[in-house]
Amino acid sequence: MKLFYKIITFGCQMNVSDSERVLAYLKNLGFQKTDDWKKVDLLVFNTCSVRQSAENRVVGQINLIQKNHPVKKELKIVVTGCILYHDDKFLSGKFKYPVLFLPIKELSRWDQKLVRYFPKIEKRVAKKFFKISPRYNSKFQAYVPISFGCDNFCAYCVVPYARGREESRPMEEIYDEVKNLIDRGYKEITLLGQNVNSYKGERLKVKDDKFTEPFPQLLELLNSIKGDFWVRFLTSHPKDLSDELIKAIASLDKVMKYLHLPVQSGDNQILKVMNRKYTVEHYKKLIDKVREAVPEIMISTDIIVGFPGETNEQFENTVKLFKVAKFEMAYINRYSPRERTAAFNLEDNVSLKEKKRREKELTEVLAETIKTKSQKLVGKFVKVLVERKKDQFWLGKDERFRTARFKGGGDLIGKFVKVKITRGLNWGLEGEYEKTRS
Q1: Domain total for the chain?
Q2: What contacts 288, CB < 8 A, 6 or more positions away?
């Protein structure tokens, strides 16, 4: 009798990458993927619970599925990922039917629990999480985790409790995975970690070897792989953004000129309470250094509005930073309390209405910056990796992670093309496909 599974993923790129390994693992156990609710034997929720609202959304989704979908009575539901509460009792108390928690880090041993419900599955020989080869969702873009967990303990975040302390993968293992992807024709590799620039993997000797720090060394090593491809990385912590890393971004041709550098707040007192370990002045100097070394770089950030105690004046300091830093993208989040974090003990004294207002004001500043910078690109050519087609437009990202759309061409998905920019849009670029330049 065939066994079927369905996986639902919430959260960031790390969760997406983890799900690719879950897919591979379940296939090896004999499960088959399906979108037919009537067939599903095993439903896996790979969750994000950095904010309370994220966990509430997952709980609501599971309850809706159990109530509304024609699922099997014997359906087993697994919750994994960045969930904070690592016990089945807590989860089962929230749902109509029992829900099983299986830690993502222990994926290689899931069979030991699942075999109780699915006796016919093959038991696997336990091995480390990163030794499980993922089933990539894309044939030309891949997420490659270089570390797992986090040591920063920011006051609003549960990742160190949910994922554990930071562990780095061996450099050779990362190199082999990326090399294999490039040999298979992949065009874009995104290195992932809660804090990629604190990567501590043991170094491998590179022919030219310009760097002494592990993460710049890793970038140099991957840059040495032959082929036409891009390397990106997420996410960098300002306290660990070194001169060597800036030099690597500037000098390595396959490393894209894009930097995601979360600031979270533009006020020093709020940053201190957040336990971010840098000041606004330090952050501004980093931005200046990066732009001096790589004038064409695109910089994006993360922001939390309405952090406990954030006054109007402190929020206005964030607005000022936005105007000075001229971010071209920002992920703006409203603060929500999260158990076990240091901030949970603080009074959540900024109203939801005020959080929404602050989010809207920052979004407007961001939109104006993007529009101004996009319009300066009119008449210029950009290299675009085509990702999909929507209506009559091809959509993709350029070297600096800007979204571009254009018409024309044959089957372009997964290919690099040259696009002449004709319009700067509020949130991206529009252009013309240059066939002779592709």
Answers
A1: 3
A2: none
The residue among 17, 408, 362, 335 whose CA lies nearest residue 194 is 17
Quick one: residue 390, left, alpha or beta (phi over 0 = left, psi -120 to 50 = alpha)? beta
- End residue of a domain, out of 93, 110, 130: 130
Instruction: Give 315-337 pLDDT, tens digit per residue.
Output: 999 999 999 999 999 999 999 88
Round to whole Å and give the CA distance between 377 and 423.
8
289-315: b or e for each residue (b if 16 or more CB lie within 10 Å)?
A: ebbeebeebbbbbebbbbbbebeeebb
Helical segments of 294-378, H only: 312-325, 352-375
Are the CB atoms for 123 and 112 separated by under 8 Å?
yes
54-79 pLDDT tens trace: 667 777 777 777 676 666 667 788 88
DSSP state of 295: T
Q: Distance between CA 14 and CA 303 in Å, rounded?
A: 19
d(CA 229, CA 414): 11
Using left for φ > 0, alpha for ψ between -120 and 50, and beta otherwise, residue 8 falls in: beta
Q: Over pLDDT 90: what percentage of the chain?
A: 62
Instruction: Based on the fold, state whether residues 124 and 169 are members of the same structural domain.
Output: no
Total residues belonging to the chain: 438
Q: Which domain holds residue 199?
A: 136-375
Q: What is the pTM of this model?
A: 0.88
pLDDT at 73: 66
Tens digits of per-residue pLDDT, 183-210?
999 999 999 998 999 999 887 766 667 8
Cβ(348)–Cβ(337) below 8 Å:
yes
